[in-house]
Amino acid sequence: MDALAHAVPWLGKRHPRAAGWLVIVLALAAPLIAAYFGRSWVRILDFALLYMLLALGLNLVVGFAGLLDLGYIAFYAVGAYTWAFLASPHFGVHLPFWLVLPLGAGFAALAGIILGTPVLRLRGDYLAIVTLGFGEIVRIFLNNLNHPVNITNGPQGINALDSLSLFGWDLAGTLRLGDFKVHSLYLYYYVFLLCVAGSIVFIRRLQISRIGRAWAAMRDDELAAKAIGINVRNMKLLAFALGATFGGVAGGLFGAFQGFVSPESFSLMESIAVLTMVVFGGMGNIVGAVVGALILTALPELLRYLALPVQEALFHRVVLDPEVLRMLLLSLAMIFMMLWRPGGLIPARARYARPELLGGETR
Amino acid sequence: MISLLEARGIGKRFGGLTALDDVSLTINRGEVYGLIGPNGAGKTTFFNVLTGAYTPDAGEFVFNGSALPTGQPHRVVAAGIARTFQNIRLFGKMTALENVMAGHHIRTRAGVWGILSQNRRTREEERLTTERAFALLAYVGIARFADTLCTKLSYGDQRRLEIARALAAEPQLLALDEPAAGMNATETGHLKTLIEQIRHDGVTVLLIEHDVKLVMGLCDRVAVLDFGRKIAEDVPAVVQQDPAVISAYLGGGGDAH
Question: Which residues of chain B have pLDDT under 50?
C-alpha cells in the first residue's frame, strides 16, 4: 500500500499518507467516474482489474524469480475452464464459487508445477520458448478436446457459465438497496478490487520474506544462490506454482464475469499482452504491474473509441481493425519504453527486507 | 585435535584431464587451513567438489563424523559449510543487508502459509534474521552500508559482504576462495584481522589463496596441490622449505606469487 502511495506523482513523496488515501478513494470511486462516460467503461475497468491480477501473478514469476514465462495465459485458461466445467450447464455441475475458485487456483498451481518440472534447467530464451509452447499446447487442447469425447466443446467454447454469487446474492443481477439499484458491473468491480487488494498484500508479504529473497537471489545469480544453501529447484517450482495460482483465480473470475469461455481468449497474444503490462509498468515491482495493467487495458480502449470515428471521418470506412490497433499500441508502448525508460514506467527497486522494524538503535 | 572435515581420495576428471587425483586431507576444528598451488593445480575444483557444485568421480568427504552429500550445494550448506567466490558473486539488485539476510535462508523455516498469514513465528523469525544480518554487517565492519545497493560498495567491502553472507548460513567451516584477490596491502591486512577474528569466534576456515605472505602468516596448516595431486601438507614453516613445493609451486627461477 505504501509503495502504491509513493508512486502517486508529486503527492506521493511529500504526503504519502494523503497519497495513500487518494489511491483508496480513487479505487473506490473509479467505476462511478467511469460510468459518467458510459457503462462500457465500467466493464473496461473490471477487465483492467482482471489484468492486474494476471500481471501481479506473472510479475511474481518473471520479475521476482527471473523466469521468463511466455505461456502464462495457460493458467488463466485453466482457471476459466475449471469454472466452466464445474459451474455451468455444460456438464450440469453447479458448484458454489468458494469451492470452484480454490479448485481453479489449485489446478492452475498444478499446471504450474507440470510446466516447471521439465524446464528447471532452462534459462532465458530457452525457457521462454518452452513456456510459449506450453501455452499453445493448452490452447490447442482446449480447441480440440471436443472429440471423440466432448470435454471442452472445442472452438465454440462453453457458455451460460454460472455467475459469481456471494452468500445468496447473484452478482449478475442488479442489487436493490431500497430504491437504489446497483448494476452487476459495479458489483463485479468491487469483488475484483477486493481480490486485487488481497493479492497485493499477499505478494508483498512474499516479497519481504525468506522466499522473496531466495527468488531474488536466484534471479540475480543462480550459482551463488545455490552456494548459500537455497534449494533452487524447489524455489523455482514454488514460483511457477504460486504465480499460476493468481492466473487461476483470475481465470475463474473471468469465466464468471464473462459467462462464456472459448480457447480464443487464451492465445499467445494474451500472454504477450500481460508480459507487456509487467515490463511496461516496471518489472519486479508490484506497483509497476498494477499501473502497467491499468494503462495498457484502458489505453487501447480509449484508442478504439477514437479510432473508429476518426477513420470513418477520414476514409469513410474502417481501415484498421481496433484489435490490430491494440497490438500496434502495445508494441509501440514497448519500443518507446525500452528507448526512454528501460526500467519501466515505475522503475522502483523492490525491497526484500524491512530494517525499520528494528528501530534505529541497531544501525 | 579433532578433525572437522576429512577428504578421502577425492578424484575428479574433466574428459581426459585429471583435475583432482586421489586428494586426501584433514582439516581440524578451529584451525585456518590453507590450500595453495600454482594456477590450474585444482584448488578451485577441490572447492567446487567440496561445496557440491561438482560431483566427485572418486572418494568422499566426511564432515563432523558423517558423509557429506555430494552434488547438492544446499545440503552441503545445511550440513555446515559455506563458501565465497573467487570472482565476487553478490545479488546485484539487493542491498547489503538483504544479501546477508538471503544468506540466512537455510537456517529459517517459514513456509508459504506462515508468510501469507504473517503468524507470530514468521514475524519473529524475520525479525531475528534482520537483527542477525545487521550484527554480521557490523562484524565485518560495513554496518553503515546496510541500506546501500551491494553493487555500489567498494571492492574490498564487497568481499567483506560476501563473507558476511556466507557467515549468515551459520557454518562450522567457512571456505574462502581467494578472498585477497585484487586487494591492496591495507585491505589484505584488514582481511587478515577479520579471518583471525572469525577463527577466534569458533569457525574453522579453509582458505585458497595466491598471496603467499597472507597464507604463511595466517594458516595453521597448509596443503599444496600440483597437477591435481597433494604434494605436501604441514605447518607453513615446513611446507615453505619442502623441495617438492619449491620446485612445483615457486618454480625453479623463484617465480613469486
Answer: 253-257
Question: Would you tell me which residues 107-136 of chain B have a C-beta closer than 8 angstroms to some C-beta of chain A?
Answer: 108, 110, 112, 115-116, 118, 122, 125-127, 129-131, 133-135
pLDDT in tens, A239-287: 999 999 999 999 999 999 999 999 999 999 999 999 999 999 988 889 9
Residues 6+ apart with CB under 8 A from A362: B131, B134, B135
Residue B202 lies in a domain: no
Beta bridge pairs of residue B27: B5
Do the domain assignments include residue B92?
A: no
The verdict on residue B63 lying in a domain is yes
Instruction: Report helix, strand or coil for B232.
Output: strand
3 state DSSP class of A162:
coil
pLDDT digits (tens, 9 = 90+) for B6-64: 999 999 999 889 999 999 999 999 999 999 988 888 999 999 999 999 999 999 999 99
Mark yes or no for CB contact B112/A220 under 8 Å: no
CATH code of the domain containing B35: 3.40.50.300
Cβ atoms of A51 and A277 closer than 8 Å: yes
Q: Do strands A165-166 and B204-208 pair parallel, antiparallel, or not at all (unpaired)?
A: unpaired
pTM of structure: 0.91
Q: pLDDT-derived band of residue A6, with 50, 70 and 90 as boundaries?
A: confident
- ipTM of the complex model: 0.92
Is B165 domain-assigned? no
From the CA of A145, how many Å to the nearest CA of chain B? 35
For chain B, how many structural domains are there in total?
Answer: 1
* Mutation for B interface: A209, A228, A237, most B CBs within 10 A: A228
Contact B165 A228 (CB under 8 A): yes
With an 8 Å Cβ cutoff, is B90 touching chain A? yes
Q: For chain A, what is the total number of helices (H) and then of strands (E)?
A: 14, 8
Q: Residue B243's domain spans which residues?
A: 1-80+207-257
Q: Does A216 touch chain B (CB under 8 A)?
A: yes
